[in-house]
């Protein structure tokens, strides 16, 4: 199972994004894909700040994730925070990135798919928590 980072979702939704074609290939693959409430929060925040979409249109994008086979399972956010605190000591990244990694650990995913260079630069440290970074 693969965790889909927010930037992959945004690249998929935006046909003018430099990584759009790459996102299409990833999301059209048959593998099991999940993301987290952390990614949904980030997606909504980005769409609110960078577009003129209204609330219903933004919700439509979030609802569309299920149609493209990205599940957003309910997870215990207390576990995510607890894991994030431990991860932050070993992998020095921004809080939001740490929360994504912690969500991936809680969801017990194998792969973490992202276009974010910072994750790729920390690939070895991230492997130590059981996640394989892919792009």
Short summary of the structure?
The protein has eight helices and five strands; from the N terminus they run βααβααβααβααβ.
Features:
10% strand, 8 helices, 5 strands, 135 residues, Rossmann fold
- H-E order: EHHEHHEHHEHHE
**Which class in CATH terms?**
Alpha Beta
Q: How would a textbook summarize the main sheet?
A: 5 strands, parallel
Query: What's the name of the CATH homologous superfamily?
Result: 5'-nuclease
Overall, the morphology is globular
**Which second-level CATH architecture applies?**
3-Layer(aba) Sandwich
Fraction in beta strands: 5-15%
Arithmetic mean of pLDDT? 95
Structure description:
- It is a single chain.
- The protein has 135 residues and is of the alpha/beta class.
- Helix content is 59%, strand content 10%.
- It has helices spanning 6-13, 20-27, 37-50, 55-67, 77-90, 95-106, 117-121, 123-127; strands at 2-4, 33-34, 70-71, 111-113, 132-134.
- Strands 3-2-1-4-5 form a five-stranded parallel sheet.
- The longest helix has 14 residues, at 37-50.
- It is globular, with a radius of gyration of 14 Å.
